[in-house]
Specification:
The complex is a heterodimer of chains A (99) and B (616). Chain A is of the alpha/beta class and 99 residues long. In chain A, 37% of the residues lie in helices and 27% in strands. Chain A has a 5-stranded mixed sheet with strand order 1-2-3-4-5. Chain B has 616 residues and is of the alpha+beta class. In chain B, strands 2, 3, 4, 5, 8 and 9 form a 6-stranded mixed sheet that branches. In chain B, strands 1-11-10-6-7 form a 5-stranded antiparallel sheet. In chain B, strands 12-13-14-16-15 form a 5-stranded antiparallel sheet, covered by helices on one side. Chain B is elongated and about 170 Å long. The chains are: A alpha/beta (99), B alpha+beta (616). Chains A and B meet through helix 2 and helix 3 of A and helix 17 and helix 18 of B.
Chain lengths: 99, 616
């Protein structure tokens, strides 16, 4: 999995390429944690993601909770229908901002 | 063995024989000498003759045993071309010496030398013996008159008469010479010179006898030489032909595959029985990929080594093109035809039938180049699988071929064969024929191995001893269900997840999965497998993963012998809860329940068994 970060003022966009699974999810979490202190709103660009398992969902939940505590947003952008169906199935679409 | 070697061998053998004959003669002479020494005078020798015998005989014996001594001491000499002349000369010298003292009794010995020389089957040697013998005889005859025992024919009177009438001493050399020189003067008779008379009346008749024996011996030599030559040439031809045939036959059978794959999806057996003269039948079967097998059979026109070489080229070409083009039999035959037409100076051609079978779906695509239609068993009935036939391969570049399709189901069979089967004939000239073949197959159903063997036997019985003119080639397949169940054990560690996912996806047969299907399936596998790897075992354990894809339904089974745990017992996470209240537990199994149609759990035989089912 590849991760690219891009700042627009203090808003961070992380472009994820590849699968978010039990092996790569911890890397995603670490990556975001590093930027946490600096970033305001965080957008995760899912255009190159076609696979997310429960490990990935846990990371999303954890990041969301942290963002929420700091009154910042977590946005999921350009997720494809496969990923969206997972997010819907597990009720994640009810609190994540989907763009 | 070539001619030269045959002669050389014969010559060495003859040399040995001559050496032994000479030695035997030496033995006889020895006995003769002993008797003389002891005083037995069987030939009524005069005392001087006896003295001569006493001295010369040992010398003769020495001559005669020399060849044998050489044979034992230096056998290599027997291989030299001059040895035969040497031994003949020695023998002749001994004979001459004997005839010197026994002119009358020794005549057979002169002839014997020539006859014995014929042993060499060499006209040159026989001629040499004849000429040398004649010369020796010419020299020895007058000498024997002087030194030898009394020969009344030569001296023209008996010993008594000589002694009494002419007052000459038979033992005196001088008297004898005198008598021969002055015969007329002494007897007063008017007769021709004794020497001339000796030549004409004594030498010439014996010379004639020798000539006859020479002619006989020579004729025999020549005849035998010719027979030996013919034998050698025929032996060479037979050897050459049989080694040629052996090589060709070995090449032919080495290119025909004999390893029959024991796949659960297809059962296959084939034989090729060549006719006496190498023919050009071939068959082939090989996997194009995991799920497709190619079946080929063909028959080259003509016989002999050219046909079998052409056959090998065809087989190689078809295999190479089938492996690269893969699933278009007509195109494969078209390209094969182009390759075969190239350089086909001898205008050979080959019939060919090519089928490509999808082992999972049972779909058989085939095309034919002038080959007899195979027999197919479908829905329990045997019939001929006819399709549009293209021209034989090797006809002309650019010939067209046609794809046909048929679907095989479980238990369906296919028999490919060459016309060696249907055109096998019996002693009455009847042919085995397509009808008989169909009848044989219909009568009783056998698995491919049995069917082919029994069919071969049926043809042999039908032939009833008639000669097999053509190769008899058969390839039979029986189609079973596509293999649908796969199982593998994995160590329950997270790192094995990709391997488990690959195994499951590769084991799914007969179901078309979209990318989304694959991703969703992989997510489900991840949730289950990672769960087991993380929690089931204290240290490490193993998981059996089973995959069954049948009729569009996929069944996955995960069995581990870790601590008993039913993941379905857990409550589903409340997906409607607010994020802050959301827990992370139970999410994975929840996803699996939603991704699959059915999920079961049971604990059996000390194993946690989780079953996932999805219909596609």
């Amino acid at each position: 999995m590849e991760l690219l970060k891009e700042y627009n003022d203090l808003d961070l966009t992380v472009t994820i390429t590849g699968q978010i699974d039990t092996n790569t999810a911890p890397d995603l979490e670490k990556f975001i944690d590093k930027e946490m202190s600096r970033a305001k709103n965080i957008t995760l660009d899912f255009s190159n993601v076609d696979y997310i398992s429960s490990a990935g969902l846990r990371v999303l939940l954890s990041v969301y909770k942290k963002q929420n505590d700091r009154k910042n947003k977590l946005i999921i952008s350009k997720a494809n229908s496969d990923v969206l169906s997972i997010l819907e199935m597990t009720g994640f679409t009810s609190f994540l901002i989907i763009k | 063995m070539n001619e030269k070697e045959i002669y050389e061998q014969n010559e060495i053998a003859a040399n040995k024989s001559m050496a032994f004959i000479s030695a035997i003669m030496a033995g006889i002479l020895f006995i003769f000498w002993l008797l003389c020494m002891v005083g037995v005078n069987a030939f009524s020798f005069t005392p001087s003759t006896i003295k001569y015998v006493e001295i010369s005989t040992p010398i003769d014996i020495a001559f005669l045993v020399t060849p044998l001594i050489i044979n034992f001491v230096k056998p290599a000499f027997l291989k030299k071309p001059g040895f035969k002349y040497f031994v003949v000369t020695l023998l002749l010298l001994a004979v001459a010496a004997v005839n010197m003292i026994l002119p009358k009794d020794g005549i057979m010995l002169w002839a014997a030398v020539i006859a014995v020389a014929a042993l060499y089957f060499n006209p040159k040697v026989t001629l040499y013996a004849f000429i040398l013998t004649s010369c020796m005889m010419l020299i020895v005859t007058p000498l024997s008159a002087i030194f030898g025992s009394w020969e009344s024919n030569v001296m023209n009177c008996t010993e008594e008469e000589f002694r009494n009438t002419f007052n000459l001493d038979p033992d005196s050399r001088a008297d004898r010479i005198n008598w021969l020189n002055n015969f007329n003067k002494i007897t007063g008779r008017k007769e021709i010179n004794r020497w001339v008379a000796m030549f004409v009346f004594y030498f010439l008749p014996r010379f004639l006898t020798l000539s006859v024996i020479f002619a006989l011996g020579n004729g025999l030599s020549k005849r035998t030489k010719k027979v030996l030559e013919e034998e050698a040439s025929e032996a060479r031809n037979v050897q050459k032909m049989s080694s040629e045939l052996n090589i060709a036959s070995a090449i032919q059978s080495s290119v025909l595959p004999s390893e029959f794959p024991d796949s659960s999806r297809i059962e296959l057996f084939a034989t090729m029985d060549p006719a006496k003269e190498i023919g050009g039948d071939f068959y082939d079967f090989f996997k194009i990929d995991d799920d497709h097998v190619a079946l080929v059979i063909g028959d080259v026109s003509g016989k002999g080594v050219p046909a079998s070489l052409f056959m090998m080229k065809t087989q190689a070409v078809v295999k190479a093109l089938a492996t690269s083009i893969k699933k278009d039999p007509a195109l494969i035959l078209e390209q094969s035809n182009k390759a075969i037409c190239e350089g086909n100076e001898m205008n050979m051609f080959v019939t060919c039938w090519l089928g490509i079978l999808d082992l999972n779906k049972g779909e058989l695509n085939f095309a034919s180049a002038g080959h007899n239609p195979p027999v197919i068993k479908k829905n329990g009935i045997y019939s001929y699988l006819k399709g549009k036939n293209g021209l034989v391969l090797g006809g002309f570049d650019g010939a067209k071929y046609f794809n046909e399709t048929i679907n095989l189901e479980k238990g369906d069979k296919l028999l490919m064969y060459t016309d060696g089967v249907t055109e096998a004939h019996n002693d009455k000239g009847e042919l085995y024929s397509e009808q008989r073949l169909l009848k044989f197959l219909t009568e009783k159903d056998y698995a491919p191995v049995d069917a082919v063997v029994r069919l071969r036997e049926s043809i042999r019985k039908f032939a009833n001893g008639a000669e097999q003119f053509d190769d008899i080639t058969m390839l039979m397949i029986e189609y079973h269900r596509p293999q649908s169940v796969f199982a593998k054990k994995f160590l329950a560690v997270k790192d094995n997840l990709p391997k488990v996912q690959d195994f499951v996806l590769n084991s799914i047969k007969g179901i078309n999965l979209t990318e989304k299907d694959k991703n969703m399936l992989n997510i489900a596998i991840e949730e289950i497998f990672v769960n087991i790897a993380s929690y089931s075992f204290v240290d490490y354990g193993r998981v059996d993963v089973g995959v069954n894809s049948q009729d569009g339904t996929l069944t996955l089974i995960f069995a581990d012998n870790g601590k008993p745990f039913n993941p379905l017992e857990k409550d589903d996470p409340n997906i409607k809860a607010k994020a802050q209240d959301r827990g992370i537990g139970g999410l994975g199994i929840f996803m699996v329940k939603n991704l699959m149609d059915k999920v079961y759990y049971e604990y059996k035989d000390d194993k946690n068994i989780l079953t996932l089912v999805k219909k596609f």
